[in-house]
Every structure is written in structure tokens, then in C-alpha cells.
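Subject: Protein entry, chain in single-letter code together with its C-alpha cells

Area: Proteins and the way their chains fold up in space.

Attached in line: The record itself begins immediately under this heading.
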Amino acid sequence: MILTARGCTVYGEGEQLRLDAIDVVVGQGEVHAVIGPNGAGKSTLMAVLSGMRKADSGVVEFNSRSLHDLSVVELARARSVLGQDLAVTFGFTVAEVVAWGRAPWRGTEQMKGDKAAIKHAMEVAQITSLQNRRINQLSGGERKRVHIARVIAQNCPVMFFDEPDSELDLIGTNELDETLRGLNQAGRTLLISSHNLSWISALATHVILMGSQKIVGAGPTREVLTTGLLSQAYGREIDVQWTPNANGRLVAMCTSS
């Protein structure tokens, strides 16, 4: 297993429980979707698993080493993170922002490949035409794609994407889907949070379903995205159907108030 969490509990302000004794196992090359209703603990879980936040109790390990035994540089070379806060105050160019992803490799042999990695990341994220634009002049969806390219340029074996499909239109979401599939086919392990159950159901190999700061279900996608487990997580009766094709997508509807 490339990433594991055992007994992770997190409290917020006023001792409010944010995560309750969470266990997670992520294997090499898997795509894990983190889903659940608002306030269920998805972003907190992503932060704990990525090392952005330390759990109040429990342990997270990357390749059998505690994340908090890794130096800042070691952690930055192990995983890259697309968070929800993507604000950039100054007018850096798109190429300059993507280049930030290469910072962990400064002073190493990998640095020789910076230009190629930045060019490749922009191609994969389909933003090459924007490379000389100022990021503060772009739309929200375009900025999101720039930061996705930054994450790709970091060239880590594990990549976290917290709601990467927010602010993207239909075309942008389709391009994101192509990008994430390509990363996974290239051997990357992905953890992705999203509210778009239809989209993520066709992309993820595994699902971590959150509800009330706990994991309601975790495992292969079709074993977790069921009427019973989704209804339990969302606190509403959810009717689940799958589209009848090879890359079937979930169709979920609330059937009662």
C-alpha cells in the first residue's frame, strides 16, 4: 500500500469533531474518490492524508513512513496537492505559476528537466495557449486548469485534487477527465474529492464515502455507490442506477425529503 491512515481523529475550533477515527488504505495506481455531503469531512480528510494537516490522534503513512517523519522537501516530492484556495494576488504569468510545481526539485538532477516538465504539464492540462497570459486576468475555470498543470509539473507519485471540477463547464470537465485518466494510466495514484457523483463514478476505481465525519463505506466503486450506503451518508433516500455501457456512470436521485 502506498498510503495508509489508522485511527485519524481531528477536532476543529471549540473541540468540534471534524474526523472520527478514520482508517484509509490506498494502493499504488488506484483512483480514490472522496465523496459525501457538505460538512461530512471530505476536505479535512484530504488535508490529513496529504500531510497538509496533522491529525490530533492516529497516524498517516506514505510507503510505510509516517508523513510527519518526512521533511518538507521529502513530502513535496512524494505528493502534490490541488486545494480549494487557489488565490494568486499578483499578476504572474501562467507559465510562472506552473513552474512553482518544480520548486521541490531545485538543486537536484531533476532540475535539468524543469523546462520539459513545465511544457508537458501545460500540454496535458491543455493550457499551452495561455502560457503568457496573467493569471489574474483568467476566468475561474482557466485558473483552475493552471493550478492543475502546476500539480502535474511537480511530478509526484501521489496527487490530491480537492474538488478539481468546481468552476469548470461541460468542456472543462471533459478535459479534466481526460487529464486525470492520463495521469492514472501513467502510473500516478490519485485522490479526488467531488460532489459530481456521475462524473466521479466513471473515473474512480475506489470510493471513500463520508458521512458525519466518519467513513460510511470504502472500497471498489460499485460496492460503495449503492442505494443503502448513499442514503445513509446523505440522510435521504437515494435511488441508484447505472448507465448500461462499459464505462457506466452512476445516476443518483433523491426520492424523498
Remarks:
- The chain has one domain: 3-254.
- The domain at 3-254 is CATH 3.40.50.300 (Rossmann fold).
- The first strand starts at residue 3 and ends at 11.
- Residues 170-185 form the longest helix (16 residues).
